[in-house]
Amino acid sequence: MLDINGLSSGYGRVPVLRDLHLEIGAAECVGFLGRNGMGKTTLLRAIMGELPAWQGRIAKSGADITKAPTRMRARAGIGYVPQGKQLFKALSVRENLRMGCVKDFGTATAQIEKVLQLFPRLVRLLDRQAGMLSGGEQQLLALARCLCGRPDLILLDEPTEGIQPSICDEIIDVLIELRRNRGLSIILVEQDIDFLWQICDRVLAIDKGSIVRTIDPKAPGSTEDAKTFIGIEG
Questions:
Q1: Mind listing the pLDDT tens digit for each residue in 92-101?
Q2: 9, 121, 152, 169: which has the fewest C-beta neighbours closer than 10 Å?
Q3: Domains of the chain, earliest start first
Q4: pTM
């Protein structure tokens, strides 16, 4: 699905990612955790093409996308839900969903109806401005809009930040269903260990732009191990 070899990237002349290697399989969910500034969001942005690869190679389903623009990566099946959601807040929920149908606007109506089956909470909000939604509803809309592009790999950056528990549970249910029934692969950046542990097959700790530990969520003591990488004691 996704193969990253020796990726280095950063901002301006400031290096953040250093010789990073990563493989993601079909229907696999891989989580990333670490303190702020360690490279988690930088990795997602480099995969999406928002930051250039200084060194290394990124391949999607065997095709080299290292130098491909963001729009081509989206067409190749990569979806991105950034931290902060980045919705079109002046547009309606329906219009935001339509903006997600970049692969084929001709089938937008059918695709939106399909995605709304996963997000019944959004149905009654279709004509409401996105900026008028609660934070949790906006997060659901951001994920739904991403799925309207029919990705087979999605990048999620801190989806639980500031979100009420009931919405977090909805997101978990949707992601589990998509993995099970549609073979969706997921890269999840998240500080909520309980959220990671409910979804991920493995969790990678990142420090100073490098992967320093692979954690099995099912292994004894894994939660305590994870806490050391986000600065939580005990």
A1: 999 999 999 8
A2: 169
A3: 1-77+196-234 (3.40.50.300)
A4: 0.92
